[in-house]
Specification:
With 588 residues, this protein is α+β, with helices and mostly antiparallel strands. The protein contains 19 helices and 22 strands.
């Protein structure tokens, strides 16, 4: 029979045993929980996370350890070790039992309980002061359900997606709020392509487990039409693929096919800045947001096309990547990265952190200091052309900086509008804390404001918080076909196991120097983490785009860069490395 004793002491075996602390009395009474501290048999320990990941309940018994995927009642058990004598029906009831406690607890707790006649009796309950721990890749087999793996399989099976384009811009996994905004822009390439009478594949952008991917079929059309094959895309956005190719000749793009008008491009940039200045809560919830964001993306696409044109012109002359980058960045006088202070966000998402970074100064060089490395005849023929090309590139880089600074301003205004909306929902007792709004979609926020939302807000928030936690530990490949999305776990694991068995990794190397010892390994190549690498000899990342801010920083300071290695933060971390020009080796 249940024992309900709150804040009392029982005398047993000459020991005083505290039944429960006052702090949990209201929780126990409100849920009518069974408390029995005198039980001496086998018990189950339950935490409401696994190594700080809140997507699971972790159960440990005498001879087993298992996980329950929260809010799921089919395909929801993951065995860590041993074999529990608990069937799925009982485990489902345990999951509901723990969910009920978690939803009503004001803090993270852990409990010990036993099962009798399918009733649950708590023998201990206390605060869970856990330490943050990292979950190793594939430590949890299939962290998502079969339904979730199939949830994102919806387009043409022939669509091929890549996530590298967004690596320096978006986080690994978007919040539900940002994801909902992105999902409303499925054909972000269309405005530019329609403008130039190009065919496009839909969607241009797809989120898989709230992870942004880009449709590579559109890149193939774009590259083929301009007559430049995959060289520029791979060099800029897929350096692991660039290493696999043998490009014998750099082709110049036929830019006339795009019908681009530079003055129109400047007008678009001006309109973007003016719209950002008037951005507010009304604009966020209005009908102009999608068109504005599409225009912003179109401007970035046009900018990259112009930069590509001039960069390839310069590279054809120099036939040397390092020299081309040095000419581009070390002769630029207006860089925002040279001896400056910037306030930036970690990435473009509603919940992104911001901080002020301090960028050290770098010595600028005259163009002649770089052209002197060219063969005399090439220098004589091309020196004036090089000067003209660099003037064009520097002008475009100034516009790139304007768009970047403006994006930080735009995100700040979006976050401010969202904060105001969160305050309103808290005041109306529709959410409990500001962070809850990140787990709502933009249309849902509109419906809630208009009292036109018929779902269960509390249930949606609880479910999505757990689901996003599980999305974050799901490994995904850099490129994936639509038809393979439901097999992402097996594909990712095969790639990982193959890479882990190697101790030699081919790398695209920039600004190589001998005797490199102090190296930073980056998951997300971003200036936000500049303190992690600005004093290092070298840095390693899977991909660093040619026209990214971090590549400019590395060029200014001639910091050695190794790219093209998949999952370097997983495969190379805490290893003793040997760094050579063109490869990274793990010392055995």
């Amino acid at each position: 029979m249940p024992v309900f004793l709150i804040n009392h002491l029982i005398f047993k075996n000459n020991l005083f045993i505290s039944i429960i602390m006052d702090r949990y009395s209201s929780l126990i009474e409100s849920l009518n929980l069974n408390i029995d501290s005198s039980f001496n048999g086998d018990t189950i320990q339950a935490t409401f996370h696994y190594k700080s990941n809140r997507g699971f309940f972790h159960l440990k018994g005498g001879n087993f350890s298992l996980l329950l995927l929260k809010n799921i009642h089919k395909d929801f058990v993951r065995i860590i070790s041993g074999q529990p004598e608990l069937d799925n029906r009982l485990l489902s009831k345990i999951s509901d039992f723990l969910s009920n406690i978690e939803k009503n607890s004001d803090e993270l707790i852990k409990i010990t309980f036993y099962v009798k006649d399918e009733e649950f009796y708590i023998t201990d309950i206390k605060s869970d002061d856990y330490e943050e721990k990292k979950i190793d890749p594939f430590e949890i087999p299939y962290p998502l359900t079969k339904v979730e793996y199939n949830l994102f399989k919806e387009g043409s099976e022939k669509n091929l997606y890549s996530k590298t384009i967004f690596d320096t811009f978006f986080p690994d996994n978007l919040t539900y709020l940002t994801n909902s905004i992105i999902k409303n822009l499925p054909d972000i390439f269309n405005p530019l392509f329609i403008y130039s009478n190009f065919k496009t594949y839909s969607p241009s952008l797809k989120t898989i487990f709230n992870r942004p991917y880009f449709n590579l079929n559109n890149i193939e059309i774009w590259s083929t039409t301009l007559g430049i094959d995959s060289f520029y895309y791979n060099l800029n956005f897929a350096q692991h693929l660039y290493l696999k190719e043998n490009y014998r000749k750099i082709k110049k793009p036929d830019m006339t096919l795009l019908n681009l008008d530079f003055n129109e491009f400047l007008d678009i940039v001006k309109e973007i800045k003016e719209t950002t200045d008037r951005f507010d809560e009304v604009f966020l919830l209005g009908n102009e947001l999608n068109n504005f964001l599409s225009l912003y993306i179109m401007a970035v696409e046009m900018l990259n096309l112009y930069l590509m044109q001039y960069f390839l012109d310069l590279l054809i002359i120099t036939d040397n990547l390092d020299l081309t980058l040095k000419m581009t960045y070390q002769t630029r006088k207006n860089s925002i990265l040279n001896d400056n202070t910037l306030s930036i966000y970690q990435f473009f998402d509603i919940n992104a952190e911001s901080k002020t970074i301090h960028l050290p100064g770098a010595e600028l060089k005259e163009i002649t200091e770089h052209t002197k490395h060219l063969p005399k005849l090439k220098k004589l023929i091309h020196e004036k052309k090089i000067v003209n090309i660099l003037q064009q590139i520097h002008h475009l880089l100034d516009i790139r900086d304007e768009l970047f600074i403006n994006s930080q301003k735009l995100l700040q205004k979006m976050k401010s509008s969202i904060d105001n909306l969160a305050d309103e929902l808290i005041k109306n007792m529709q959410i409990k804390q500001k962070e809850d709004i990140y787990f709502l979609e933009l249309d849902e926020i509109k419906q809630i404001k208009e009292n036109n939302f018929y779902g269960n807000i509390a249930f949606n928030l609880y479910f999505r918080k757990a689901q996003l936690s599980r999305f974050r530990i799901q490994q995904t490949p850099t490129e994936i076909y639509e038809k393979d999305i439901d097999s992402v776990e097996e594909i990712s694991k095969n790639i990982y196991e193959k890479a882990r068995s190697s101790n030699r990794f081919k790398a695209l190397t920039f600004f190589y120097k001998e005797n490199l010892s102090d190296v930073a390994i980056l998951n997300k190549p971003s200036l936000f983490h500049i303190d992690d690498f600005k004093n290092k000899d070298a840095l390693i990342a899977q991909n660093i785009p040619i026209f990214s801010l971090i590549m400019e920083f590395c060029t200014l300071h001639e910091k050695t860069v190794f790219t093209g290695i998949k999952m370097p933060d997983i495969l190379l971390k805490d290893k003793k490395l040997i760094l050579k020009n063109g490869e990274v080796l793990i010392e055995q």
